[in-house]
Amino acid sequence: MKQKVITLIVGFLIYGTLFGLMMYYTEADRDFEKSFGMAVFFGFFMTLSEVFINPRIKKFFTSKQKNKE
């Protein structure tokens, strides 16, 4: 559980920051509030995916690969 919380926080900061910077510098109007809101939204849902969905996908494919052997 502690590992999931750390992954959630670090992932949120990394995904959110990178996406926010990308959106801020690629938009023509450079609206900080809009970029910040999108970065928070994107970072939150990407980290939820990283913590809860990706392990299930990895588990599915590793068990599928073991069954073939």
Keywords:
69 residues, 2 helices, mainly alpha, elongated
Terminus-to-terminus distance: 32 Å
Rounded radius of gyration (Å): 16 Å
Question: Order of helices and strands, N to C?
Answer: HH
Describe the biggest sheet? none
Structural class: mainly alpha
Number of helices: 2
- How confident is the prediction overall: mean pLDDT? 85
> Helix content range of the residues, please?
over 70%
In brief, what are we looking at here?
Helices cover 90% and strands 0% of the residues.
Word description of this protein:
It is a single chain. Helix 1 packs across helix 2 (32-68). The chain is an all-alpha fold. The two termini are 32 Å apart. It is elongated, with a radius of gyration of 16 Å. The protein has helices spanning 2-26, 32-68. The longest helix is centred in the C-terminal third of the chain and has 37 residues, at 32-68.
SSE order and pairing:
Elements: H1 2-26, H2 32-68
Helix pairs in contact: 1-2
